[in-house]
């Protein structure tokens, strides 16, 4: 007879193998076959009854895990010098997990009683269940410094790289951390600031060459003035926060809500669930639940956390780091909807009919527990017939109903016709050393579109509720294109042999018709880029001017309060509208909505510029090893001083300077967006296919300079030569200009 494992052995197995927790997996692990499976089933039921396990579909799991980012209290080192810690966020009824702290060489010394914020990994060892890596010690928030290290006779000094940095910092010999002269370093304040002399610092990380890829995002952060250091009061306030319970909330913990995010996501602020509507009045309809982290419960109006979040406006994302709007204690822990962990949320239940039209919705303030943290790729693979151990048990009862609801929403989207641009998003992949490993275009899966449609629907519901209840809010506004930009788009379309409807109120379906005409042709990228450039920039406003791009009358941001302050304002509006507590929108905030809207619209643009500059620098560093190589691309912009080219391979933008085009003079036509050679008649216009040679790449500035080799697969004529030759090409250029003017006059007459 096979030996039946003990209850503890089963719990240890489930803890060590969270993706292999079905009864079949457990039986296979312990070699249990035949009638012995009956005994195994009995033990599993006992563990479930005792609260040690929770059955989820066809698998078992610990009902309450520790969150991936957790607060721990350090214990005394044991006889082997190992440092263990007690989890301060354990809610389970079973044995408290044992956590081993694994300090890095650069970590500060930890002592018994220290409280730390740490990132946890589940392990299966004899003496511990989790391993922890220090994020920071709670109660300490040293000032960070970024600068160039200059070596001295004893230690050295740090020279700030930004203009705002007024003081240099002294570094003692023992605090150099191996830094070399001229390296970019990150340091922190060492000891209190004295009244006399330069302040002191200790180097905590060497970032190497200031022009190297790893330093790029830090430079952008400082150049654009993005706050990346939380004040001590903000950290102290976040550290005092505790997990919220069920009091005053609807219990949603039995609902199989899941999060679907990028594979490298560290925080999860939205979860979803859907099922067929059992209302006989709504045949073929669906019910969609979207649950969002209840950040408003932790970030109260007027608090230090609130002031700092408003100041930042939003989180900023770089290829190698995130500058969060909220401290780790909230963004990565208490406000993140981690798998298997009870979390406070604000949820909306939405009813849609079989055609995807929303026919009703209601908001609740609840307590949820995500059954799975999934990524887009594994969700899509599961739906496509290739589930893994984690998605397999969820396919029938969770994933397929989600996709069924999404298909209905897709039908409604097709009728509404929001702007349908086809502009692939670049993804820069870095290796462990911070160098660009590859530049690719992100796949756009149905899993991405599903989450996007669910979030849009929830945002609409939030806006409609606050309008109906007459509570002020911040709308997400996107106005239609300005007439002059629309006219420029129409001219570009005509030059490409396409048409854009005129003489009627512009709607997104008119632009989509143009995009559809261009699809599959050589002009597709040009028309998509030109359409994007014609668009106004979205912004926040207490007045509702609609969202042109999404073809929606009422729209507000509700679904990402961890990373956007606008969403936090909407959450507070919903709390006020429903009378859910004292953490709702205040009279003072309502009075300042105009100012808040302008500020967070500005911080959003600041982040976009910093992210774009960082991407440009990474691409320049990536391409710097390929100077002299030839690339294909397309003219993406025209200026008096040259033509901009977007490369096919990486999407990188660079300049072909006019000075590199020969000795002739080039006429710049701002309206037509062209450069024309005075001698050769060479016409350079947006959208033309080109071959270029990379002449220069500057990782420090992010600049790329190209030499133009061919235009529309034809070699370039060069200005200069004999006097007779110059007269000939002048006559050719004059004829070309006369012909172009004639075409312009003809088009103008048609318009009249």
Main β-sheet: number of strands, strand sense, barrel status?
Answer: 6 strands, antiparallel
Total domain count: 6
Q: In order across it, which strands form the biggest sheet?
A: 28-27-26-32-33-34
Structural class: alpha+beta
By DSSP, the count of extended strands is 34
Low-confidence region ranges: 720-730, 746-752
Mean of the pLDDT scores?
87
Alpha-carbon distance between the termini? 95 Å
Tally of individual helices: 17
Q: What fraction of residues sit in β-strands? A: 25-35%
Structural shape: globular
Helix content: 25-40%
- Rounded to an integer in angstroms, the radius of gyration calculated over CA atoms is 30 Å
Keywords: Cytoplasm, Exonuclease, Hydrolase, Nuclease, RNA-binding
Pfam families: CSD2, RNB, S1
Protein name: Ribonuclease R
Domain S1 motif: 628-714
Written description of the protein model:
- With 752 residues, this protein is an alpha+beta fold.
- The chain has six domains: 7-61, no CATH class; 69-138, Beta Barrel (OB fold (Dihydrolipoamide Acetyltransferase, E2P)); 144-210, OB fold (Dihydrolipoamide Acetyltransferase, E2P); 234-412 and 424-477 and 542-609, no CATH class; 483-535, no CATH class; 626-718, Beta Barrel (OB fold (Dihydrolipoamide Acetyltransferase, E2P)).
- The protein contains 17 helices and 34 strands.
- It has a six-stranded antiparallel sheet with strand order 28-27-26-32-33-34.
- Helix 4 runs antiparallel to helix 16 and helix 12 (508-518) packs antiparallel against helix 13.
- It is globular.
- Keywords: Cytoplasm, Exonuclease, Hydrolase, Nuclease, RNA-binding.
- It is found in: Cytoplasm.
- Residues 717-752 are annotated as: Disordered.
